[in-house]
Specification:
The chain has a 3-stranded antiparallel sheet, with helices on one face. The protein is built from 8 helices and 3 strands; from the N terminus they run H-H-H-H-H-H-H-E-E-E-H. The chain folds into 2 domains: 56 residues; 100 residues, no CATH class. The chain is α+β, with helices and mostly antiparallel strands and 172 residues long.
Amino acid sequence: LVIANFISQLEADDATNANQANCRSALSTLFQLQGFKKEKINCVALQQIMKKPQAGMRKPIKEEQVWNYDQLLKYIKSKSDQKTQLSEIEFLGIVIATIMGYSTLRLIEVHRSTVLKLPKGCWQVKTAMFKGHYTGVTVIFRPLEDLSICPTQWLSSWMNRRKKKDDELPVW
């Protein structure tokens, strides 16, 4: 509670987010060295107070384009005739790339997603944006005219390629 009061005072004095976090770390270390338990030092009130400074210190995600989208589609189209010869890793990479390409999902969001087959060849991808917090995002993919670059076609092929015993395991 002493740390929480101190951090609140720092916030009132317009201390920077990094300064508040550093002071919390320093005081926590001092109290631990004096023999206090971690549960008593890092109480719920302190965790709530530190949410704002920790969120303020997070760096925005910077994404840089590695492939041009047209190049990616040409590559996927060239591999569509060779689906049976593709290794499992390469096949999975193409499936994930099509999902990422046709949606705004990042790799980690696709990795923690679940998929559900819907009627008329559609697929639903549900994911959480942040680990531990369910801020659900649902993306529904519908079939395209060009099946060689269609995410539903690649996803269906991937699910068919998985063995029956793998049905209980995560999709990715």
